[in-house]
């Protein structure tokens, strides 16, 4: 079975439907070219995200809306000034643990603390794409009890975004926090591997 045809199986932890996500993004040809030119190895314990050049946060927000998902976000391409990684600099693959909730071991740690420790964490662009692919594969959402702190991204003023689903609003929220803010339910997703 080819990488882009693998379906999501929650128990086996296999891949998400990246081909469907990129179809919703209007980037099917770019995605196909990327996977044809990259050796992508499957690991049932990880989600490996293909970050294809040309992706933007606003494109992903539009794809959520096309899929019928309400998202409270604003102009994220304007709001996010700094990213540890971005597909503007070229396509890449980045892997995270296959968890619906952000990494438990990263709870109650601020973005400042994680940066001081040299941690590599998810960016807002990566988290939005991961959430879109997960929704298209399962009809469910990530971060239903907690929020992913996107420590790999910052606003011009140094605020750090987070993403979570709130079922009583039936909406995804992108919120902003002071970089020293910490909370038990605010958790970064640690990068397991990254290759360009």
Strand content: 15-25%
**SSE string:** HHEHEHEEHHEEEEEE
What structural class do the secondary elements suggest? alpha+beta
Query: Would you identify the regions where 5 or more consecutive residues have pLDDT less than 50?
Result: 1-15
Residue share in helix: 25-40%
Task: Provide the residue-averaged pLDDT.
Answer: 91
The radius of gyration computed from the alpha-carbon positions, rounded to a whole number of angstroms, is: 15 Å
Number of helices: 6
Number of strands: 10
Give the N-terminus to C-terminus distance in angstroms.
23 Å
Strand order of the largest sheet: 2-8-7-5-9
Biggest sheet details: 5 strands, mixed
Shape field: globular
Can you give me a brief rundown of this structure?
The chain has 196 residues and is α+β, with helices and mostly antiparallel strands. 26% of the residues lie in helices and 22% in strands.
Could you describe the 3D structure shown?
It is a single chain. This protein is 26% helix and 22% strand. The chain is built from 6 helices and 10 strands. It has helices at residues 18-24, 28-36, 57-66, 76-79, 111-116, 124-138, and strands spanning 46-51, 71-72, 80-83, 92-97, 147-149, 153-155, 160-166, 171-177, 186-188, 193-195. The strands form 3 sheets. Strands 2-8-7-5-9 form a 5-stranded mixed sheet. It has a 3-stranded antiparallel sheet with strand order 1-4-10, sandwiched between helices. The protein starts with 17 loop residues before the first helix and ends with a strand. The relative contact order is 0.19. Mean pLDDT is 91; it is low at 1-15.
């Amino acid at each position: 079975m080819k990488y882009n045809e693998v379906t999501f199986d929650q128990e086996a932890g296999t891949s998400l439907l990246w081909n469907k996500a990129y179809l919703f993004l209007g980037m099917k040809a770019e995605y196909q070219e990327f996977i044809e030119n990259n050796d992508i190895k499957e690991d049932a314990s990880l989600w490996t995200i293909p970050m294809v050049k040309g992706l933007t946060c606003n494109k992903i927000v539009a794809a959520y809306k096309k899929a019928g998902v309400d998202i409270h976000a604003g102009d994220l391409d304007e709001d996010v000034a700094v990213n540890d990684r971005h597909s503007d600099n070229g396509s890449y693959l980045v892997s995270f643990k296959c968890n619906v909730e952000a990494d438990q071991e990263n709870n109650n740690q601020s973005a400042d603390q994680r940066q001081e420790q040299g941690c590599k964490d998810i960016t807002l662009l990566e988290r939005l794409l991961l959430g879109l692919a997960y929704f298209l594969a399962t009809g469910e959402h990530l971060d239903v009890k907690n929020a992913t702190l996107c420590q790999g991204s910052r606003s011009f003023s140094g605020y750090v975004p987070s993403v979570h689903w709130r079922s009583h609003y039936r909406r995804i929220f992108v919120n902003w926090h002071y970089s020293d803010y910490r909370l038990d339910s605010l958790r970064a997703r640690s990068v397991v591997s990254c290759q360009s």
